[in-house]
Design a protein that fits this description.
Blueprint lengths: L1 H16 L4 H13 L5 H18 L1 H8 L1 H20 L4 H29 L2 H27 L4 H21 L1 H7 L2 H4 L11 H5 L4 H28 L5 H25 L5 H18 L6 H15 L2 H13 L1 H32 L5 H22 L4
Amino acid sequence: MIHLLLAVIYIAFVSLGLPDSLLGSAWPTMYREFGVPVSGAGLIYMIVTCGTTFSSLMSDRLTKRFGTGLVTAVSVTLTAVGIFGDSLCSQFWQLCLFSIPYGLGAGSVDAALNNYVASHYASRHMSWLHGLWGVGTIIGPYVMSFALAGGLTWNYGYRYLSFIQFGIALLMFASLPLWKRHAPAKSTGTQSGGEKALTLRETFRLPGARQAFGVFFCYGALEQTAALWASSYMVLHCGIDAVSAARYASLFYIGITAGRLASGFFTLRFTNRQMIRFGMILAACGAAALFLPLGRAVTIAGLVIAGLGCAPIYPCIIHSIPGIFGMDKSQAVIGILMSACSMGVFLMPPLFGLIANNISVSLYPAYLLGITLVMLLLFHALLKQARIK
């Protein structure tokens, strides 16, 4: 039965990734239809991020009261409702409205599942599970490009994804007995009456919490800026058509997915700290490759390398949290890390949208490289405050 629960968690990680790359792949088509500037995607991400930040900060209280299983099931349902609502939109404000349930659902399920896996499984499982998240991010753009190439509108891409998400939500509700059977309340928060939740102030006072917050802010900024603006960069700067750009944009997530599946094996030989540092350096190399004016192939290679670099950073840091801060504090810390990641998404991709509008979209590689270098500096500051093996 415990293997069945692990299979359910794997599927839940796929559901986390399904909508994450959808807007970026469809936006070159969507913004013209809505009559908004190309930077309008930044506003959508800001709304989603407000929801994910709030629900991430509430995750410690929610999981200790309702349990990881129920929080996951309800959260996946909320994301499905948001995606289906997006498929019905004909005006930009409607798209903004349906971004609210998606954001609220995404934050809670992300924090709850990451803490559960970090507390109960080896580092290789964390990497492999996040590789399954990458599978979800790959599916999204391909579904969108399938709809667009078939002569359908972007609405159908959203609608098809929502049907998949509703199916996963039903599976999550059906699996609730597994969580109750195999997840003790004291350590996982799967039943009500668990430990007292830490306040935000108490969590930030923990040694290393602020530095970890900064690293995750940069990581969220790097990943989402790279994903959101990849298609627009290729269309507006590289002269690639919208359908091809939507397909090529998924290569960034293919890099992340392949990297995380491989990282699961590398963690058997290398420590989390080594994996994190190597990933940051590789991501910087990928961003730097985008500077080279050597054609479409090098641009695609740069995206893949950047994705490979991002692969071990998130899961390896998350897996270190229970060991650094303790099992009783890990949910609170992971909650603020999810919110930090969300804040990076909230602020940095929209900021690049303004840069693209008012200066040039060609600054995309420089923007990604700058964020990566700051993240590397913050990680070394974190090492001075907390022990990461």
